[in-house]
Amino acid sequence: MDNDKKIIKASKIGQVYTIPELYDIAFDFRDAGKEVDFLLDIAREHAGREIKSALEIACGPAYHTREMSRRGIISGGLDLEPNMVAYTRGLVEKEGLSCEIIEGDMRYYKSDKKYDLVYILMASFAQLQTNQDILDNFNCVADLLNDNGIYIISTAHPRDFYGDEGKSAETVWSMTRGDITVDSNWGGDDQKFDPMTEIDDVTVSFTVTTPDGTTHYDFPDRYRRCSIKTFEALNQLAGRFEIVDTYGAIDKNILLSNDKAAWRFVPIMRKLK
Ligand SMILES: C[S@@+](CC[C@H](N)C(=O)[O-])C[C@H]1O[C@@H](n2cnc3c(N)ncnc32)[C@H](O)[C@@H]1O
Questions:
Q1: How many CA atoms are closer than 13 Å to the CA of 81, on its beta-carbon side?
Q2: Does residue 247 lie within any of the structural domains?
Q3: Do 122 and 246 belong together in one domain?
Q4: N or C: where does the chain have the smaller number of CB atoms within 10 Å of the terminal CB?
């Protein structure tokens, strides 16, 4: 490592989300428009009506929340991290959008507002680390949904932790915005799966290069790697949703399977009466 490179080693789990500017650059590689098409189409198909309102939980910089709002959907984003919430409110304000960014916990948040669709993307579902966290999340989301409301989850494909074929997703990539480049390593070289707890202890690294120099950040993080069978059992135990479809990507043409093209676990859940 260069001698003049500043190195910051964080110690707190989840601290990576306290610097939202870096997350926002690193994760701005998705086609939010295309993914919102998928979310709305699939939700409409299974709810049996137009989707007029949607809430993204663990929204981070809320790429999809903002895209929903641009399309005239009543749109909200929920996140636990105050720095992330403040940053994302700034993005919403700058663009003059009407979506609401709420500070709250996806296990316990309650509101009188009800939504047609709730969704959760990227590594966020894995932030629910215990079976009780997942049960609390199912109950929390069901209470936020209208009748027949849809909950869409996109999370890691289980081959990532139970298979021996390596990762389905890239863990090392680079993104540039203006004169800032963020090179990310999302647990790629340093990932310890504990089969007892189904938890991965990972180091998330950002190497940030600006005209002023380079800073390397290491953040510890922790992800629950819930098997599909455990997921189904927890869903049955909560008794709030039926799983009506399962995709292998945020793509209508890719159903869940062991094929390479299926690289995510995307269950579509409909609220039970
Ligand atoms: C991997 S980021 C995902 C951001 C966004 N969904 C995306 O697609 O880029 C995970 C986010 O979950 C938030 N988070 C973690 N635990 C949470 C909880 N219990 N309730 C709400 N948000 C939470 C973090 O603050 C972080 O912003």
A1: 21
A2: yes
A3: yes
A4: C
| Secondary structure percentages of the chain, helix, strand, coil, to 5 | 30, 35, 35
Query: How many Å apart are CA 234 and CA 228, to the nearest integer?
Result: 10
Residue 3, pLDDT > 70, answer no
pLDDT in tens, 195-204: 889 998 999 9
Q: What does the pLDDT read at residue 35? A: 98
Same domain, 54 and 136: yes
> How far is the centre of ligand 1, averaged over its atoms, from the C-alpha of 160 (Å)?
20
How high is the pLDDT of residue 10? 81
42 touches ligand 1 (CB under 6 Å)? no
Question: Which residue puts its alpha carbon closest to atom 17 of ligand 1?
Answer: 80
Find out whether the beta carbon of 123 lies less than 6 Å from any atom of ligand 1. Answer: yes
Residue 1 confidence class, pLDDT cut points 50, 70, 90 = very low
* Residue to probe by mutation, ligand 1, list 99, 127, 200, 223, most atoms within 8 Å of CB: 127
- Do both 143 and 182 map to the same domain? no
Q: 59 CB less than 6 Å from ligand 1?
A: yes
**At 153, phi and psi to the nearest 5?**
-115, 135
Residue 195 shares a structural domain with residue 126: no
Which domain covers residue 179, as residue numbers? 6-19+168-224
